Amino acid sequence: MGNAGTIFGTLQDPSKEVVAGAKVEISNPITGYRRLVLTDPSGNFRFSNVPPNSYHLNAEAPGFSKLDQDVVVRTSVPINLTLSLKLEGSTSSVTVEADSTDVLETVPFAHSDVDHSSLMKLPSGSPGAGLSDAITLSAPGVVADSNGFFHPLGDHAQTSFSIDGQPISDQQSKQFSTQIPVNAIQSMELITGAPPAEFGDKTSLVVNAVTRSGLDQNGHGSLRLQYGSFGTISEDASLSLGTSKFGNFLAFNTMRSGRFLDTPEFRPMHAVGNNGTLFDRIDYKPNARDSFHVNLFAARNWFQTPITYDQPGQDQRQKVTTFNISGGYQRTIGTDILLTFTPFVRRDHLNYYPSSDAFADNPATVQQERYLTNYGFRGDVAYVKGRHNLKFGTQVMQTRLSEEFHLGITDSSFNPVCLSAGGDPLALPSVTDPNACAGAMPGATPNPNLLPGLVGIDLTRGGTPLFYNNRGKVNQYAFYGQDSISFGNLSVNIGLRLDSYNGLSAATGVQPRAGVSYHNKRTGTVFRTSFSRTFETPYNENLLISSATGAGGLASNVFGAYAQEPLRPGNRNQYNAGFQQAIGKWAVIDADYFWKYTRNAFDFDTLFNTPIQFPISWRRSAVDGVSMKVSTVNIHGFQAYTTMGHTRARYFGPSNGGLIFNSPLSTSVFRIDHDQALQQTTNLRYQKKKESPWVAFTWRYDSGMVSGAVPDLESALGLTAAQQSAIGFYCGGTYASLNNPITSCGGSNYGATRLNIPAPGTANDDHNPPRIAPRHLFDISAGTDDLFHREKFKTSLRFTVLNMTNQASLYNFLSTFSGTHFVAPRTYQAELGFNF
Fold this sequence. Notes:
Layout: E1 5-12, E2 23-27, E3 34-38, E4 44-50, E5 53-60, E6 67-73, E7 79-84, E8 111-115, H1 116-119, H2 130-138, E9 142-144, E10 150-152, E11 159-163, E12 166-168, E13 185-191, E14 205-211, E15 220-228, E16 232-242, E17 246-257, E18 273-284, E19 290-304, E20 317-333, E21 337-353, E22 364-385, E23 388-409, E24 418-419, E25 425-426, H3 437-440, E26 445-446, H4 452-455, E27 466-487, E28 490-502, E29 506-520, E30 525-536, H5 543-546, E31 570-583, E32 587-606, E33 613-632, E34 638-658, E35 669-671, E36 676-687, E37 694-702, H6 713-717, H7 721-727, E38 729-731, E39 734-735, E40 750-752, E41 755-756, E42 771-772, E43 775-784, E44 794-802, E45 810-815, E46 819-822, E47 827-835
Parallel strand pairs: 1-7, 11-14
Antiparallel strand pairs: 1-4, 2-3, 2-5, 5-6, 8-13, 9-10, 11-12, 13-14, 15-16, 15-47, 16-17, 17-18, 18-19, 19-20, 20-21, 21-22, 22-23, 23-27, 24-25, 24-26, 27-28, 28-29, 29-30, 30-31, 31-32, 32-33, 33-34, 34-35, 34-36, 36-37, 37-43, 38-39, 38-40, 41-42, 43-44, 44-47, 45-46
């Protein structure tokens, strides 16, 4: 269903008689996808729910020579094959193995394909965010951020998911929602190049996912029990069963961890959380032309908000519950046309709870309750004829929002009205007017950076908490059409999409998209180039309160934004150029250059170190970079891939919408925290035979994202002891500690081990911003999928070490957009599995 394909056909002998009981297999040597079926008494075979990709097909039966050919699945219209076996000995028998040249794809957009077999072997260190980890480790140009977030090609979380054809453009991070579990995914196509016209909303990364199905399954199941560091306990269970007409796949997962979110201190404190998910896919295929499916998903996240040494008594928590129901109906007309209709409804309900004692929260007490309900449908017609592969469709949906938010300042030094003669904050709880500072205390002066709107909600000065409660809705519809035209080795993709957005703001986007690819078979090279115009929609999470701020807006500009203006959709022009190159028959290189120019570019503002984030937008952005992936086939049990990315992310102020809680950033050009010079992930795996023990090694390198909080020595000296200790601040031979902050530094020998502070006088928001220090992280796994070598009931065992060297590194530090979070310390994981 969705964008998954179907391959079916008949196997014949030279006299046109059917061949029953023959083996027919499709495989992809890069992703590891492999399916085997037997022909029925009529010689028919069928592969359903096949992810879009290139495959090598072979068929064999006793007395016949083996048949081999390539099949490309780039349409949901069923592909009908008539295969003829030749008698054994009538021709020279040559065994043709699938190699890298078989999987070169003549599509004009960069993408990576990941199969279930690879997904289940990848290391995952972010509890409740295994899908995010898998995407970050598999897609080039995707940079890891804290708490399961990631930056795809220079944007923050600008990702759209298509789950069996259901469009989801809201955040799927555990801070906002609950993700579909990895063991429910059959495959993912991660589109990082120019998106086809059928995809919209947020297009820096499109995750086109196909879930697992019970069709044609006689009954398979698995149970995995895990225990690891930080008291992490989890279980993953799945069951698939069915016939050619009915199928059911069920996945049920639970976990609990003492480090659920990435923490603002290397040692986790107040970081317990748990997660539970239930996914059920039901398929019904009454005949060869009609098929139905229903996806049911329910999930829950509960976690504590991690604290720092500056917040010893804080006890803030969050709970998120999610349900999702989507359906699908497909009707095949003739041999060329497929109709697809996909209705859906999804709801996230979030509660954020403050400490029972408001003044235990520092620097503010926060409470929130939000609902996000999204429902609608998508319908399209796919038509394949001759050199054309067309699809026309529409997407209609409404998102209903309900937001309630409470905030009260509990730290008198956070927004002081008055400063001492030396510039230190003064409590003076009775003073709310800066003009009264001098009369309240000799030498006291007004705070030049005072945010007047916060004084009224400062509980230390007799203020009352801010209370916000509102409801709204966003109506969207889209029409799209696209055609992939084949001229021999040349492929041309053209498309047009029209989006209408009507919420707190209204806009319409007309989006032409075009791409060309050429396959030079002699050299094993595919060249491609493309252009896409996209319509980028605002984030829905906290959209109402973010659009109510600004001068003359919510509580007289409580949050210090430039102006009150609802967030508006953005428009982007994107150019891509790249190539695929087969290296002999052993490997494939896929490289892509991208350039994105966006008017009205989006990001999030983080409220202190909480998981509460508010959407914001900037006047424009210019993002460019290079992404590359090198993948090998299975070479005598060894398989590897390397992803790399280089991104320049330049944003241009001022902010033109949304909520920035702290003072506004520069109005000129600056590098946002998505900017990183180099990201690299290498994954190596060796397994001599299918049932042999295996070992895997992962090396991750990040050159360090922008972190603008410490541009100079003065900023470092103004940090608290805990903050100085977090970045490893030093002066001469003295290092800051929790009990001994560095308050003065007269020499030039200063710096930080986890943060690069620009040399004196060299800091520049665009050309030389402060950055997180580079880091190397190493993970290793070893295990076996068949411990006792049983035929049907197999026992698996696995042991994993994440961050082997116990590298103490930061994702970010006091970031306006992300807060402060450490990479997880060395983590051990042990897993015992049962498969039948």
